[in-house]
Design brief:
Elements: H1 2-20, H2 27-31
Length: 32
């Protein structure tokens, strides 16, 4: 359960980072 919750937070953080830093390459998004 903890892992799922942590993954959700990480996913949200990455999503926010992508929105805040659109210049960063979408490597993670592409790999996912």
């Amino acid at each position: 359960m903890s892992k799922t919750n942590k993954k959700s937070i990480v996913d949200q953080t990455i999503s926010r980072l992508n929105e805040l830093s659109p210049k960063l390459p979408d490597k993670r998004k592409g790999k996912n």
